[in-house]
Amino acid sequence: GTVTGNNVSYNPETNTLTLDGATISSSGDYGAIATHIDGLKIDVIGTNTITTTTNQEGIRFYGTSSNNIEGSGSLTINAPNYEAIRSSDTLVIKNCTIAATGYLCGISGGNGGDKLIIDNATVSATGTIFGSIYSFKDIELIGCAIVKPSDAEFNPSQRAICAADTIVKTEVKIVPATVYDLWICGEQVTSANMNDLSVIDGVTGTVNYNPETRTLHLENATINSTTIAIESLDGGIKIEVVGNNAVSKEIIFDNHFSDNPGFIEGNGTLNVSAPNGTAIDVNVPLTIKNCTVTATGSFAGIIGYGDVLTIDNATVSATGTSFSSISGFTELNLINCYISKPAGAVFNPDEKDVCYADGTIVKEEVKIKPIGTGIKNIGNQTVIIYPNPVQDILHIQAEGAVNAVRVYNIHGVVVAQALNNAREINLSHLPTGVYMVRVEVGENVGTMRIIKN
């Protein structure tokens, strides 16, 4: 074999082999680099190449303690008849670029490889017979992500990088990446996959994440998970819903790293189904705004742990058949919304649940809807009545004094009225149906239709 380069040297005091612009070729009975030294570090500087032409490894670590390949440079290993890199114990690849191409394996743990750690490094590995990265008890990625194949991951039962439980024998590419405390279908969101999260198994439609705004965008998306569909450990994120979106399994906003509030917003719909648990699990303040959310769980629909749930101009349907439909919040803040179902249900601050009037926790569907309004120009004034539909109190908003408000049934009979600058009228005693509201403002009169639930 031959060795050329700017500097190829070994320091026994630090157990460091330096490769600086090295070209190493081997055609003998040993690999290009073979070592029995425990804890050897290969320091790569500049561009380096190793080639073997016999049935030997490009690099073989026989040692029984952690070995390292690191540095600011790159190292390309070609072993067309055998394995590019083989390590008997833990191997750390750090802060460098490695391209390992072998016939049997790209990077192998041999018969007893303990662990492969790739730390802030770019690694490309190909092994056509047994696997590209193969025979390790564990693989740990630090500040890195697998980008090729897009659905590849370490499979501990196969002890290899696999895609869909099949050992990958084509190129496996790992690159440095910023990781975020957000998981989709059990896969962590990184700077490498955040722009198209549909590459994750179980995700279809348009799904992406913006770390600057902490926004997970769902557009006509379907997320089917066997574990947790969406999990944020850094407090809440904003889930932006556009179009129709369906999620199976839980959505979790957890405060493991921060108490950032959570948001579900947009002009679309989000249907969350958790047949074996809770649909939306919240450990931070949560706001649902300007969208339609359906949360159905066998345990709970939406559950909190002592924070505030705000529903702002949104339609929310929550069902939790065994425990509670909406539970665990110190406050349910309804902005431009009201509880329309079940009739008479209210938020009970003592129970921290939505309850029936007698205090019993609701376990059927809780429906919260935006307050409908009636707007009428009467004379030179705008008069607004709300909510519509109404359950009990009908509010009247006007610029000037309201002389009288009279409510008529379909037979033209006055069934309720309020006089002398009336701003509200109690309709709780009226049966369900359609009514007409006559509002007198000064000398002007206007009539609007309402629905009584």
Structure description:
The protein is an all-beta fold. It folds into 3 domains: 2-176, no CATH class; 179-370; 374-452, Immunoglobulin-like (Sandwich). Helices cover 0% and strands 59% of the residues. The protein contains no helices and 51 strands. A hairpin with a 4-residue loop joins β20 (152-155) and β21 (160-163). The relative contact order is 0.05.
Strands, helices and their partners?
Blueprint: E1 2-4, E2 7-11, E3 16-20, E4 23-26, E5 33-35, E6 41-45, E7 47-52, E8 59-61, E9 67-71, E10 74-79, E11 83-87, E12 91-94, E13 97-102, E14 105-108, E15 115-119, E16 122-127, E17 131-134, E18 138-142, E19 144-148, E20 152-155, E21 160-163, E22 166-167, E23 172-176, E24 179-184, E25 187-190, E26 203-210, E27 215-232, E28 238-242, E29 244-253, E30 262-266, E31 269-274, E32 278-282, E33 286-289, E34 292-297, E35 300-303, E36 308-312, E37 315-320, E38 324-327, E39 331-335, E40 337-341, E41 346-348, E42 353-355, E43 366-370, E44 374-378, E45 381-386, E46 393-397, E47 404-408, E48 414-419, E49 424-426, E50 433-441, E51 444-452
Parallel strand pairs: 3-6, 4-7, 5-8, 6-9, 7-10, 8-11, 9-12, 10-13, 11-14, 12-15, 13-16, 14-17, 15-18, 27-28, 27-29, 28-30, 29-31, 29-32, 30-33, 31-34, 32-35, 33-36, 34-37, 35-38, 36-39
Antiparallel strand pairs: 1-4, 2-3, 16-23, 19-23, 20-21, 21-22, 24-25, 24-27, 26-27, 37-43, 40-43, 41-42, 44-45, 45-46, 46-49, 47-48, 47-50, 50-51
Number of extended strands: 51
Class from secondary-structure proportions: mainly beta
Count of discrete structural domains: 3
Distance between the termini: 90 Å
**Sheet with the most strands?**
18 strands, mixed
Radius of gyration: 33 Å
Number of helices: 0
**Shape field:** rod-shaped
Residue runs with pLDDT of under 50 for 5 or more positions: none
Average pLDDT level:
91
Helix content: under 10%
Beta-strand content: over 45%
